[in-house]
Write a structure and sequence with these properties.
By secondary structure, the chain is α+β, with helices and mostly antiparallel strands. It has one domain. It is built from ten helices and twelve strands.
């Protein structure tokens, strides 16, 4: 599969706000992500190329406290003809860096099923990773099943926030108690999960592949219950889309100069990559192969999923200093204060 970029738009901080990718030669699927840091002001750069507004994508997180640490997005998937009419949105995502009350370096990630063809429409896969001790991480996964609601099709571009398009879908930034309780699996059947025990484990530097396989086994089985089949397929498509093959060409001006190849989107951490890494082992287990054989990431021909790790592996091996600079830049944009507070109408708002 040879993916090519077809559409791109950027935010006023240089990060990409929309990217469309497809396999033009073989008529493959058409992928679209529309993504914003929730501190992005409305208007101007706050509208994606297709026409979705930042306030629609970000929902209640838009310009909220801590909004510079929260990223919201929609993932749409169709074929070549659907972009001429409407492109079905199949996933809604939310990623929060350093949530309140958690250690520095923590992430809380949510992906919601909004595909009307799915039995689990409205279900949420939630993941939390928190560092502790010496090179150790606590992982927690929750699979919250579909609520008892009517299905409403979500399409790109968004005409309003998803929670308004379908009032049965609470805003994805709502307190987790708003959503159905998590489930686990036993003997092929779904049961209420034990919040203190199920799908929680620690990963340490000395962990073996067999230990990790055992720890991930139950949540992998749970999401493979037939109820979540379509949701799982869309999650896998999102992982497949995640690396986009060749890196997208950035049309804007970087904050440190006019070289488009050095623009923020080309720095290694994108604002929607945490879910790709945190959920990859659950939805696309073959992604874990790269950890055992890093060179396979460069050699992989028929499956683009493992490529999402290649730049991280390269940075770790080569100790590239700009990798850290990239992290610093991504999480320092706006300085934690929404630019709308400047009350400026300048088209370069946020670029200074």
């Amino acid at each position: 599969m040879g993916l090519s970029q077809t559409t791109i738009s950027v935010c006023n901080d240089g990060n990409v706000s929309q990217l469309d990718v497809t396999d033009k030669v073989n008529g493959g699927p058409y992928y679209r992500i529309e993504v914003y840091r929730c501190s992005q002001p409305s208007g101007g750069f706050g509208v994606t190329a297709s026409g979705s507004r930042v306030e629609y994508i970000a929902g209640k997180d838009h310009l909220s406290n801590g909004c510079n640490r929260i990223f919201r997005y929609t993932f749409s998937l169709g074929d070549q003809s659907s972009i001429l009419t409407h492109l079905p949105t199949v996933l809604e995502g939310r990623e929060e860096f350093n949530p309140s009350g958690m250690r520095d370096g923590s992430w809380e990630v949510r992906l919601r099923d909004v595909d009307t063809m799915s039995r689990s429409y409205g279900a949420i896969l939630r993941g939390i990773v928190e560092p502790f001790g010496d090179q150790s991480y606590a992982l927690r996964y929750e699979l919250r099943p579909a609520p008892d609601i009517s299905k409403t099709e979500i399409v790109s571009p968004l005409a309003s926030p998803i929670s308004r398009i379908n009032a049965g879908l609470p805003d994805l930034g709502s307190d987790v108690s708003t959503f159905p309780s998590p489930v686990t699996i036993s003997d092929g059947k779904l049961f209420a999960a034990d919040a203190k025990r199920d799908h929680r484990f620690a990963i340490k530097k000395a962990a073996t592949r067999a230990m990790l396989d055992d720890q991930f086994a139950n949540i992998q089985k749970t999401i493979r219950h037939p109820e979540f089949a379509r949701f799982l397929a869309n999650l896998d498509a999102y992982e497949e889309f995640g690396d986009f093959g060749a890196k997208p060409t950035h049309p804007g001006t970087n904050l440190v100069g006019p070289n488009a190849r050095l623009a923020a989107e080309s720095i290694f951490v994108r604002q929607y990559r945490s879910a790709l890494v945190l959920f990859g082992r659950l939805t696309s287990p073959e992604m874990a192969f790269g950890a055992a054989k890093p060179l396979s990431l460069a050699e992989w021909k028929t499956n683009t999923r493992p490529g999402v790790y290649s730049i991280f592996v390269g940075a770790a091996i080569n100790h590239v200093a700009i990798y850290k600079l990239g992290l610093d830049k991504v999480h320092s944009d706006y300085g934690g204060i929404p630019m709308v507070s400047a009350r400026s109408s300048s088209p370069c708002l946020g670029c200074r």
